[in-house]
From TrEMBL:
Signal peptide: none annotated. One of its GO terms (molecular function) is hydrolase activity. Keywords: Hydrolase, Lyase. The keyword Phosphoprotein does not apply. Residues 15-82 form the SAF domain. It comes from Novosphingobium clariflavum. This is UxaA family hydrolase. Gene3D superfamilies: 2.30.130.110.
């Protein structure tokens, strides 16, 4: 049932600010105060007088300090609010802050996917071509296009879901940990359950040699690999095509079967956030994350720089002292990554975030971590690592949309749930479900957006949660996302070192 939407919302009883749910004009009254100026949709206004230098509270937590005295009813943004973040911190464990009980006896929904020989479950049955180096990226794309045309009948019949190449510019002129990171993420992609078969296409003289890449692929995933070095081949296009044909023949024998919710692994991502992201879309993902944790499924959270300022609440949900120490170490290591480059840890939000009403990194982070809900933190993994523990996993990766979404796919996510307030068309190796934080975006870009989270405001959270879970299971069972329909599939590798 549709309910009346108020002009603004106060998220937490302790908050100093409220968020405008529609454009508000000077002189209007909202939350018991009279606005002293216009406030754009998604932006904040003060609920009380705030002294210069005092913390400003939203989500029940400080989001920065007032740079000037702020009067009740005044617009609160970059002109009078600034970050209070600095560098590394000494975190104290307060374990057990989150307890998500198992749904004992509850009837949980199922979905239809592919059960792989290693026991993991896939949402797609595809062939992937992964170039070891940028030099053969276009070759990989040509092989994929020709194979896609050659096997169009099998794709149309649903025997396989597609043949895709994922080009990138890396794999050579890299050293040490930088090369290791490229190899790790490509190995993780090769291990993805959604790739029924994988052709690793090399050049021959690159730093990222085929044999070293194969060694980085988990042992249980190597049987589905085929290898080709282009410099050693005669006609590399023809030889690669034959290897892909072999993989297609094997993959076409797979069948979708009924699978439990616990077999699903989701990646959590936000990009192009706005003032509504922390009100609608991210909490929607958070409640789903809690459902996944109760069911014994896996959810993966990353974007470490977009945890800065909200990390203590997440650390408090660590399932053990070892997990706490690993997570705290990861956050501080990422801060050091910035500081060693002479950069502040608070060099965020983006211009689009600012336009949408997000002022400081603390505010962005407190909204972003809501994608994990209150699920306990079960594990911490490095970039290119595999999520293996049920519940919430924290993974090392930056906030960049393409880099972090690629890393989620490489870590075992078979769906990426991507919330956005500004909109973006790009998709990634696994089905990428775009969740709009506001109705304006959902209505303007239906060819980008898969779900409108703003229904939580006018239909209530329970209705939104039920509708969202139904859509997630439909996409997991084979329905194509907007980015899949648009042919938007790409990867990006996290480049951290010098280029030779």
């Amino acid at each position: 049932m549709t309910q009346a939407i108020p002009p603004s919302i106060r998220i937490h009883a302790a908050d100093d600010v409220a968020v405008a749910l529609r454009p508000l004009a000077a002189g209007e009254q909202a939350e018991g105060v009279v606005l002293t100026g216009d406030v754009a949709r998604g932006h904040k206004f003060a609920l009380r007088d705030i002294a210069e230098g005092a913390p400003v509270v939203k989500y029940g937590q400080p989001i920065g300090r007032a740079t000037h005295a702020i009067a009740a009813g005044e617009h609160v943004h970059t002109h009078n609010l600034a970050t209070a973040l600095a560098g590394e911190l000494a975190y104290s464990p307060h374990l057990g802050a989150a307890q998500v009980q198992a749904d004992d006896g509850a009837v949980l929904p199922s979905w239809r996917g592919y059960r792989r020989a290693d026991g993991r479950a896939a949402t797609r049955n595809e062939i992937w071509i992964l170039p070891t180096v940028g030099c053969v990226g276009m070759t990989a794309e040509q092989v994929a296009r020709e194979a896609q045309a050659r096997h169009a009948d099998l794709i149309a019949a649903g025997r396989i879901d597609g043949i895709h190449a994922f080009a990138h510019p890396h794999g050579c002129s890299q050293l040490g940990d930088d090369l290791d990171g490229t190899r790790a993420v490509l190995a993780g992609l090769a291990a993805s359950p959604n790739a029924a078969g994988v052709l690793l296409l090399g050049l021959g003289c690159e730093s990222n040699q085929l044999d070293a890449l194969v060694e980085a692929v988990p042992v249980w995933a190597r049987a589905k690999l085929r290898l080709l070095s282009s410099q050693s081949a005669g006609n590399e296009i023809a030889e690669a095509g034959k290897l892909v044909d072999e993989l297609v023949a094997e993959a076409a024998r797979a069948e979708r079967t009924e699978l439990p919710l616990s077999a699903l692994t989701i990646g959590l991502k936000c990009g192009g956030s706005d003032g509504f992201s922390g009100l609608t879309a991210n909490p929607l993902l958070g409640r789903l994350s809690e459902t996944m944790a109760r069911a014994g499924g896996k959810a993966i959270l990353t974007e470490i720089p977009e945890i800065f300022g909200a990390e203590q609440a997440l650390l408090d949900r660590s399932s053990s002292r070892a997990v706490f120490e690993a997570a705290a170490g990861l956050v501080n290591r990422f801060k050091r990554y910035y500081l060693d480059q002479g950069l502040p840890v608070s060099e965020n939000p983006s211009p689009g975030n600012l336009a949408g009403g997000i002022t400081t990194l603390e505010e962005k982070s407190l909204g972003a971590v809501q994608k994990a809900g209150h699920a306990p933190l079960s594990d911490v993994i490095d970039y290119g690592g595999q999520a293996s523990v049920p519940g919430l996993t924290l993974m090392e990766a930056p906030g960049n949309d393409a880099v972090s979404s690629t890393a989620l796919a490489a870590s075992g996510a078979t769906l990426v749930l991507f919330t956005t307030g500004r909109g973006t068309p790009l998709g990634f190796p696994v089905p990428t479900i775009k969740v709009a934080s506001n109705r304006t975006l959902a209505e303007a870009k239906p060819h980008w957006i898969d779900f409108d989270a703003s229904i939580a405001l006018d239909e209530g959270q329970e209705a939104a949660d039920a509708a969202f879970l139904a859509r997630i299971l439909a996409f997991a069972s084979g329905e194509r996302t907007a980015s899949e329909r648009g042919g938007q599939r790409a990867i990006a590798v996290w480049k951290r070192g010098v280029t030779l």
